[in-house]
Inverse folding.
């Protein structure tokens, strides 16, 4: 079963507008971490933002914020004031299995969302 | 920020040959490194977890005899694709988790290696 779901294969946003990229996840662990990465056409993976399952406040990093709704198991990425350079693939990822299940301590990725910023 | 390098960035080889890809953490030590592969227009699929000084842990469906992983030091892990075939052509990405620092250990990714097997 897929652990991370990103239901938007492709998204378009007007430059300077805000956009929300959806991510839902599935885990039975109480302690886990959620990440968002950006992958431009060059292929490098760029870390954007992190949210721990016990963090009470939503994470923010500059123009990026993570809308964390634990009960719904969702971790949506909000990009404010979109820029042309934001056009890329965006991956939601989860780390689970820390501590007891050390063999499962790994980061797995969702299918990704392709974001295109329109001038 | 933390830097991870990969070498080579691009390799083209003939079917049947072996290819070694290096992953180095340049400014931090990494007890654990991860190897992913990514097909065009798809997500990253975890292949294996590499731990310094011990055998790698492979994900289900990944052939350990075909994808040899060696994590010989706290800054270097290698992936060798043995007897490569065209279906092994892919984008291989490594990531490294710092040994010390933030408890949840953000993973830092290398720039990737594009393997083309003719």
């Amino acid at each position: 079963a897929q652990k991370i779901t990103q239901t938007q294969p492709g998204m378009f946003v007007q430059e300077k507008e805000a956009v929300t990229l959806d991510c839902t996840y599935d885990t039975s662990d109480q302690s886990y971490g959620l990440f968002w990465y950006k992958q431009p056409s060059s292929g490098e993976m760029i870390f954007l933002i992190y949210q721990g399952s016990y963090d009470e406040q939503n994470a923010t990093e500059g123009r990026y914020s993570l809308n964390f709704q634990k009960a719904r198991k969702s971790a949506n990425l909000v990009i404010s004031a979109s820029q042309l350079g934001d056009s890329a693939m965006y991956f939601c990822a989860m780390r689970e299995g820390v501590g007891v299940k050390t063999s499962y301590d790994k980061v797995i990725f969702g299918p990704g969302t392709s974001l295109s910023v329109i001038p | 920020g933390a830097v991870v390098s990969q070498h080579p960035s691009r390799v083209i080889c003939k079917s049947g040959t072996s290819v070694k890809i290096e992953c180095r953490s340049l400014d931090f030590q990494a007890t654990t490194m991860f190897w992913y592969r990514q097909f065009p227009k798809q997500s990253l699929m975890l292949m294996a977890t590499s731990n310094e000084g011990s055998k790698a842990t492979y994900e289900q469906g990944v052939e350990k005899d075909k994808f040899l992983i060696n994590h010989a030091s706290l800054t270097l892990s290698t992936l060798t694709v043995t007897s490569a075939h065209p279906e092994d052509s892919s984008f291989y990405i490594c990531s490294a988790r710092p040994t010390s620092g933030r408890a949840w250990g953000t993973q830092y990714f290398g720039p990737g290696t594009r393997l083309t097997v003719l």
User: Anything to note?
Assistant: The radius of gyration of chain B is 14 Å. Chain B has a mean pLDDT of 90. The CA atoms of residues 52 and 73 of chain B lie 6 Å apart. Chain B touches chain A through 21 residues (CB under 8 Å).
